[in-house]
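User: Design a sequence. Structure:
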């Protein structure tokens, strides 16, 4: 445990949304708060709570199921994803309210995933503090906010949009018909995501899994609108400041990793010689894209470690693993933290989800970006155009948006051996040091977390309420 505990532990409830990319950063923030003497209850679905209980053993963190998704089919139950959201709200809001009201240790604050639209209503109803947790980048929020003003406020943004976002490529949207009908020029998924900003406006704090020096200009722009607090990067402490005891993994995995096989294989490889390929837990590549990626890896002389999830194995070219066994390893899942921390990794081919992006930055691993949808495109833009720590493997400009094998190979060679290699290495090493500095003692994120804890004092919250 860290120094600086509060004399009497505050009790904070953390309401996590579905999905590994949402749960992991909120779990890590919970561990960081617990290490500073805060009592934490993580409220989530029954399936998530069961999984976390078996992997996490923090005395200051308990888990509370507020919705039994196991008996109702989860996200693939009746009504699809929309049906799941409706059931989670109906059951979850009632059970969470009852839990907060009846708990013997009074709850000071509800930290909720901003993607849960009904969360802020509970804080208002119960008169407790609320912190909206945005699990994507500050730049993504700054990109979405003008859309929110157009759709929900029915008026253009009242201040200039953030300038660095100018020049972003067109965002691609996933096809999720179960979320309902389109509204105007935006598809249902965007309408759903824009609802987060209603939570922003009602929150005492808006928390971001980022750090000041990574998105400095964006953060300053956003502070004109909300009480923005950067608290990242939310990686396990073992890989950053080592101040949180027994924190060397996230504690939640949708898939079972094959870590021992991966690490033994990497141990036999030279420093910086391996390309690591992974598109996260949610992205689902089409067969054509997997074939192009396989061709790029097969035709080169580059060592590679490629994560191909079980439901994507059938899309691999026949005998690919056998043909490339001398230089490559294909696995169904692995511990990405352990892999990115390994000296053998030279670059990371990634979809650029925000967690993967922050991990690569924190470990100083250059990225070949192959963004698929939404915020991944924004993250990739910043990686290449703003931070200069990687390259975007450009997709074909058609409906499929597949990236050709030649383009993938070109980017790999440029990152590993090309003219920009030294510049990219220098920049990613610099960001790696800034990431560690932010979360270490008296770093910007560490100070922000301490300030957040100190502001749970009732007098401060009354002041904030009057101000808002």
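Assistant: Done.
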């Amino acid at each position: 445990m860290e120094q600086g505990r509060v004399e009497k532990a505050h009790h904070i409830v953390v309401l996590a949304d579905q999905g590994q990319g949402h749960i992991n950063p909120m779990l890590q923030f919970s561990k960081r708060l617990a290490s500073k003497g805060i009592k934490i209850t993580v409220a989530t679905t029954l399936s998530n709570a069961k999984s976390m209980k078996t992997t996490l053993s923090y005395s200051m963190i308990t888990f509370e199921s507020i919705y039994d998704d196991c008996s109702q089919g989860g996200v693939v139950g009746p009504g699809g994803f929309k049906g799941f959201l409706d059931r989670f709200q109906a059951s979850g809001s009632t059970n969470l309210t009852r839990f907060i009201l009846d708990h013997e240790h009074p709850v000071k604050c509800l930290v909720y995933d901003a993607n849960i639209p009904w969360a802020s209503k509970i804080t208002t109803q119960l008169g407790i503090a609320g912190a909206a947790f945005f699990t994507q980048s500050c730049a993504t929020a700054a990109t979405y906010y003008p859309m929110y003003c157009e759709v929900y406020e029915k008026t253009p943004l009242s201040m200039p949009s953030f300038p660095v976002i100018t020049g972003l490529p067109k965002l691609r949207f996933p096809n999720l018909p179960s979320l309902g009908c389109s509204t105007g020029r935006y598809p249902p998924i965007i309408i759903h995501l824009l609802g987060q900003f209603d939570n922003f406006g009602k929150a005492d704090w808006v928390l971001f899994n980022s750090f000041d020096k990574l998105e400095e200009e964006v953060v300053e722009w956003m502070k004109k609108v909300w009480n923005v607090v950067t608290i990242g990067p939310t990686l396990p402490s073992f890989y950053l400041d080592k101040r949180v005891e027994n924190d060397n993994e996230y504690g939640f995995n949708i898939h079972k990793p094959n870590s021992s096989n991966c690490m033994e294989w990497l141990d036999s490889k030279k420093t910086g010689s391996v390309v690591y390929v992974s598109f996260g837990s949610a992205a689902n590549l089409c067969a054509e894209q997997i074939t192009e990626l396989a061709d790029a890896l097969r035709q080169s002389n580059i060592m590679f470690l490629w994560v191909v999830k079980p439901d994507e194995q059938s899309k691999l070219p026949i005998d690919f693993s056998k043909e490339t066994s001398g230089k490559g390893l294909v696995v169904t899942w692995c511990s990405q933290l352990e892999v990115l921390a390994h000296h053998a990794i030279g670059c990371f081919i990634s979809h650029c989800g925000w967690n993967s992006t922050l991990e690569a930055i924190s470990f100083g691993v250059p990225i070949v970006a192959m963004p698929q949808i939404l915020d991944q495109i924004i993250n990739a833009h910043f990686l290449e155009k703003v931070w200069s720590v990687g390259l975007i493997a450009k997709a074909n400009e058609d409906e499929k948006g597949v990236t050709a094998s030649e383009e993938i190979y070109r980017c790999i060679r440029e990152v590993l051996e090309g003219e920009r290699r030294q510049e990219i290495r220098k920049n990613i090493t610099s960001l790696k040091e800034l990431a560690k500095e932010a979360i270490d003692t008296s770093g910007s994120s560490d100070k922000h977390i301490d300030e957040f804890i100190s502001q749970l004092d009732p007098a401060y919250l009354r002041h904030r309420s009057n101000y808002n």
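The chain has two domains: 11-243+440-467, 259-433. The first strand starts at residue 11 and ends at 15.
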